[in-house]
Amino acid sequence: MTDTVTTMGRSIVQHGPLNNRAYLMSPHPEDVPWIVEKLYKLASTKGYSKILARIPASMERIFLEARYVREAVVPGYLISGEALLFVSRFLRKARGRENYPDRVAQNFALIEKHTRHHHVRRSDFSAIRLCKKNDRVEMAQLFRQVFASYPFPVDDPDYLTHTMASHTRYYCTTENGRIVGVCASEMDTDNLAVEMTDFAVVPEMRGRGLAAYLLAEMERDMCSRGMRTAFTIARTLSPGMNLIFKQMNYSWGGTLVNNTHISGGIESMWVWHKRLKK
Fold this sequence. Notes:
The chain is of the alpha+beta class. Helices cover 27% and strands 35% of the residues. The chain folds into two domains: 4-96, Aminopeptidase (3-Layer(aba) Sandwich); 101-275, Aminopeptidase, CATH 3.40.630.30. The strands form two sheets. The protein has a seven-stranded mixed beta sheet with strand order 7-8-9-10-11-13-12. Strands 1-2-3-4-6-5 form a six-stranded mixed beta sheet. Strand 8 (168-175) and strand 9 form a beta hairpin. The model has no long low-confidence stretch (mean pLDDT 93).
């Protein structure tokens, strides 16, 4: 079961029962403010309990007046220097309450204790390379092995082929000819910004710094392509990836409460961001 990506006017929206939400991924200025009411009608009709919107800071007032709350921020995301905001409206009170407050607080305290500046030893792993179309089946199998569920259909080879051909670069490293780690950069070339996402490492390779190695190589490539800002959305219940981003000089940007269906259930997510180039 996956959610649907569609359009409202000239804006891009994902919605469906898996994440139990409507997600305004890319609002077009000409669609605001009427899209606010359209999103509410969609969520109400479908019975979704959350609406998430990723918007420029200049649109925030319109959404706050419609009972949204700011959950996270990525400073300087837009090419103009304007911040990108994640704002949400909870249509059921329970959706706005953290399901695992003690675990989330414990993980955040753990991450805050760690210092930054993580140094990756390249010699520990095979060279990172860009994934190709003929890798898509093995990549999908790896995503399926690592995640019991995921907010986007990365376990579908056709989805991987489609995103490879548009805005996403996938990277992998191998051991004995087998892909053992994958990650992706979803580029917003209009704003010279990129989401560092889709990290998946086979269980037997975890704890060896492979994810940090992948992230470091991905950052080098994105810098060479002129990207200025990087961000990620990471699971609050999984401190490992959050530690890596903290150690690689990413700053915490906020919490998306009960936001994403991943690894079998709805979880809250942390937003992290980093300036790659001035």
